[in-house]
């Protein structure tokens, strides 16, 4: 069954912070039912996450503070795409800023949506191979802890309490499929 998108009757910003804009959207569905939704208005910049594979044997991850859960989380390098930047350029930049490596071979794996009922944001998932040491200064308040993980033990990452971010878990499975592990 193919659905017709609802008509947007009106929309307005109902709250805004330095990081987020909440928009109220009034919709009319094809069956004439009207509903009011709230959603996080995206910046349309997009974001990237990168699964770095060193020498075909080791996954590289970072452990950094996550304000949302007030904990340190283990995950793959990630960040926003800067204005005028292509997704693959952002992926390589984030690698250098967060874990001190660049990549000669970036492969796009998939575009993921993040809670599409509430967010318009999309994230491009890449795998990075042919890594080389290269650092750029990032915007993190403290250094990110670099964590090396044996590629042949990728499944044991799922047992790590601090490896819980859904985007990193999804990226791990996409990398596993790509690498045919």
Helix content: 10-25%
Please, how many helices?
2
Q: Uncertain segments of ≥5 residues (pLDDT<50)?
A: none
Could you say which structural class the secondary elements and strand pairing correspond to? mainly beta
Distance between the termini: 36 Å
Strand content: 35-45%
> What is the averaged pLDDT score?
94
Largest sheet properties? 7 strands, mixed
String of helices and strands:
EEEEEEEHEEEH
Molecular shape: elongated
The count of DSSP E runs of length 2 or more, i.e. the number of strands, is 10
Rounded to the nearest angstrom, the radius of gyration is 19 Å
In short:
Helix content is 14%, strand content 45%. It has 181 residues and is mainly beta.
């Amino acid at each position: 069954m193919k659905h017709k998108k609802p008509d947007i009757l009106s929309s307005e910003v109902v709250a805004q912070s330095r990081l987020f804009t909440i928009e109220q959207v009034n919709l009319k569905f094809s069956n004439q039912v009207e509903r009011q939704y709230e959603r996080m208005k995206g910046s349309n910049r997009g974001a990237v996450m990168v699964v770095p594979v060193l020498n075909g044997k080791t996954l590289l991850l970072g452990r950094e503070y996550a304000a949302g859960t007030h904990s340190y989380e283990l995950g793959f390098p990630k960040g926003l795409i800067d204005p005028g930047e292509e997704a693959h350029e952002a992926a390589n930049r984030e690698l250098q800023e967060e874990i001190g490596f660049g990549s000669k071979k970036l492969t796009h794996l998939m575009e993921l949506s993040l809670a599409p009922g509430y967010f318009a944001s999309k994230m491009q998932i890449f795998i990075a191979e042919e890594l080389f040491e290269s650092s750029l200064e990032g915007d993190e308040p403290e250094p990110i802890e670099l964590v090396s993980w044996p590629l042949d033990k990728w499944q044991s990452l799922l047992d790590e309490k601090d490896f819980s971010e859904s985007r990193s878990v999804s990226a791990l499975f996409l990398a596993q499929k790509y690498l045919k592990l």
